[in-house]
Amino acid sequence: MAVEELDPSSPEVMLAFYRRLYPFKSIFKWLNHEHTPTRLFTNREIAYTLQSDVYLRYNSFTTFEEFKKQTCTLNPTRFEIGPVYTARPRDKKTIRPGAFQPIQRELVFDIDMTDYDSIRTCCSGADICKRCWGFIAAAVRVLDSAIRDQFGYKYLLWVYSGRRGIHLWVSDREAMELTDEQRRAIANYLTVVQGGKDMHKKVNVRIGTKDPVLPASIQAALELLIEPFGDLILEDQDCFKKDEGWEDLLKLIPNEQVTAKLRTKWNSDEGRSSEAKWKDLRDLVKDMLKKTPERAAVKAAMEDIILQYTYPRLDAEVTKHRNHLLKAPFCVHPKTGRVCIPVDPEIVDEFDPKLVPTVGQLLRELDAAISEPGSEEHTDWEKTSLKPYVDMLDRHTAGLMNEVRIGKRAADMSW
Amino acid sequence: MNTSRQLAEVERHDILKYPHRLNFYDKPPLDDVTIEEFEVCALNRLRILAEIESCYARNRPFDELCSITRKQCEKYLPMDASTSKTDLDAQRRVDHLGHFVLRLAFCRSEELRRRFVKAETALFRVRYDLEGQVAPLDRRAFLNSRAFAWVQVDSQEKAMYASQLQSSSLGTKDEEYYKVFCPPLTTFSVAQQYAQVKWTRVPDLVEKRRVFLKGGWAYVPSRDQSSIVFQEFQMNLEKALEITAKALPRLDEDTRLVPLLNNLSQGFLAGVPSEWNATTAGDEIKADMVDELARKHFPACMRNLHDNLKRDHHLKHFGRLQYGLFLKVLGLSIEEAMLFWRRSFSGYTDDQFNKNYKYNIRHSYGLEGKRANYPAKSCQQILTMDQPGSTDNHGCPYRHFSPDNLQTALLSMYSAQGLTSADIPEILSTVKAGHYHVACTRVFEITHANRGVKKGEGVGGGESITHPNQYASRSRELEKAAVEAAKVEDGDVVMAG
Ligand SMILES: [Zn+2]
């Protein structure tokens, strides 16, 4: 196949991708938690976006073969995964409305680079580069640890969204069962940066009246964010270098003497680096009298600044409702052609969106690897650079399945 | 508090059938109940719940809901603290019984169940907060009487997470509160205690970051343990109602109960009316006073009937019935009523009038037929019974008029008393949500603002309109009070002069 034929918006390319590469079986096991189909799969909504931009909701399947067959027939540009309902979504029309309710769903999170547009200096809009990925990496570190340590969930799958963001799917049994009220609680608990363009101070989470402190969970996040704040905000993005950048910073410091001194100094030294400016601020705090409320207030403001620039900015609405649909892992982003691959949170800093395999690249690899054309298998992805990512999902699912097995055995014993 | 008195109270708890004022209503009442008792208990409780619903419909803040509900409880369902010498078991039995009768009435549809659970949970919350203020020991005894499936955090673990726990309990007035209200003797109850529960049981506290979270467990300080209690109350009741709903068909065989339960379940639509009959009405009124009274004191339903009667010199059967009984209770004697209706039906000959209408009027005064003393119709009856046909004028304008007609009618009726088109959107949106009596109450407040009635005050103490005669009689009371006040002022002027 010639390169120009591998445009991800071409139906032939997508059909070849679904037939030869998309890991339907792995996705099935991940959604189903067991080898034989359960309600978690059969009552699960799949929504297709067709080439014609028609949106086809309430599809459901009894097996992964059926899932693959239908996907190849419809040949969508992408598809989304919804909740598990009380009945099969494809039978929706024949069921009385009250009897068709979402009951289970992975707990999901969505972080998108656009929410960082007011801070990042390297790119804007739809663009993303290795440098601004640093914001996403910091967000992943904080969220991953909060959800594991504070909420006690273990089965977290991070997935690159194909363009400029990342999704998180939590598959623990308890997480699957959460009500909308509980999902809203968790989303709001994890929302720290709030307020639009006209709100300067976007972090207002302290509790107590005299010397207010950060809640324990946010104190824990702050400790994870000090390093990225130095590397990313001060060094890489150099957010306070330009006038509007440091003016924004000064608006967040509740001490006129301090801001006046800094303003004089920075006005006379155009282009002073963010690192130097942050050090100027720290030096002024050091000189303030210890244990005074003024000093405590500026120190608190500095902590809040770190949070405002680096704490995860969630699209909270995605998390709040069980029936929110989210693009399936391993779909192809129609504009970039990149595959939505799982991301290992341990090495999220090393992730480079530009190095993510694209549909075109994968199909070329496949053509090169297969000597006899026409032999097509479910596991053709093994012959391409998609392999490590499918393996990552399978390992994740194996742990989940093992837990389900143990849970079942325990239930059997108790009888 | 000294120990001997405490011991005495402990003994008292033991001999009471209902040891606590707070109740989770786990077991249905088993003793024999008369049908009258059954109905009275349920109606009185329903008054309180309906008022709670109105509070939600009016978006009242919780502290207002609280004070209104407390007043209603004092009036309709008084329950004394354990230190009182009254017959506590009798009071608590009424509470218990009323709750269970209403479960039967409200388990029948998902919508009714949802509303009932919401109102009952609010009632429980109001009482729980009050108990915490006036009888914290009783409340603690109640809490100790139930297994709430929470694990008390031991001192070792508390020490391990000391700083995190501390930051979750900063800045609330409750720290102070516990110091004041919990005597040192009750060390088991004070603020430094933490209970460990799955975080999913206290989503409200998690959302506000008011608990420390570790591995999916929330460390709930004792001041916030009420969240767990309320959630448990709500969940228990939801489950119980579903079970009752499944068991109900068997109960439907009891023909005396079914109409009663149906009637009760309508209580949320328009509140529970107080009984309005001739004995509770004020002074007698004369036929030629009606016109002025209508302009100054009538709710929209009666004003509408009056205006139509004047225009058409006629009203159809249900209109005459609704208006006639209202006027009777307002204080129009049979003689004056005869005069009023005769004059109003001016297009008819004496012969026609006597033949077609006289009997009906006398009948409604209990002078014909089975000679019953018919009460005037309540909002609930007007809203739900004898739905008006296309040529009828009776019913409730808030429910039975189209929005544009309602707007025109309200402005023409009440502009003179201060209602303006700026008030209309709020009223229409209340109507749209199905809270007709709340809309009527709001109109009452607006049109009596010049008598000092404030928004949210209703017919007094935040109470909503549940009966047209209540509307009219409160309106007349306010006028009388204003007249009296003016007299006193005049007197002062004279004295000063
Ligand atoms: Zn960039």
From TrEMBL, chain A:
Q: Which Pfam families does the record match to this protein?
A: DNA_primase_S
Tell me the keywords, alphabetical order. DNA replication, DNA-directed RNA polymerase, Metal-binding, Nucleotidyltransferase, Primosome, Transcription, Transferase, Zinc
State the EC number(s). 2.7.7.-
Q: Which Gene3D superfamilies match?
A: DNA primase, PRIM domain (3.90.920.10)
Entry's transmembrane regions: none
InterPro entries, per database record: DNA_primase_S (IPR002755), DNA_primase_ssu_euk/arc (IPR014052)
Q: Name one GO biological process term.
A: DNA replication, synthesis of primer
A GO CC annotation given for this chain: alpha DNA polymerase:primase complex
Q: GO molecular function terms here? A: DNA-directed RNA polymerase activity; metal ion binding
Which family, according to UniProt? Belongs to the eukaryotic-type primase small subunit family.
**Name by which UniProt lists this protein:** DNA primase
TrEMBL record, chain B:
| One GO location term (cellular component) | alpha DNA polymerase:primase complex
User: What GO MF annotations does this protein's record show?
Assistant: 4 iron, 4 sulfur cluster binding; DNA binding; metal ion binding
Q: Which organism is it from?
A: Dentipellis fragilis
Please, one GO biological process term? DNA replication initiation
Pfam family example for this protein?
Answer: DNA_primase_lrg
Its function, per the record, reads: DNA primase is the polymerase that synthesizes small RNA primers for the Okazaki fragments made during discontinuous DNA replication.
- Per UniProt, residues of the DNA primase large subunit C-terminal domain are 291-471
Q: How is the cofactor bound?
A: Binds 1 [4Fe-4S] cluster.
Q: Which residues bind [4Fe-4S] cluster?
A: 301, 379, 396, 440
Keyword terms, alphabetized? 4Fe-4S, DNA replication, DNA-binding, Iron, Iron-sulfur, Metal-binding, Primosome
Please report which protein family the annotation says this sequence is part of.
Answer: Belongs to the eukaryotic-type primase large subunit family.
InterPro entries in alphabetical order: DNA_primase_C, DNA_primase_lsu_euk, DNA_primase_lsu_euk/arc
Instruction: Name any cofactors this protein relies on.
Output: [4Fe-4S] cluster
Under the heading Gene3D superfamilies, the entry gives: 1.20.930.80
CDD domains, per database record = PriL_PriS_Eukaryotic (cd07322)
Q: What is this protein called?
A: DNA primase large subunit
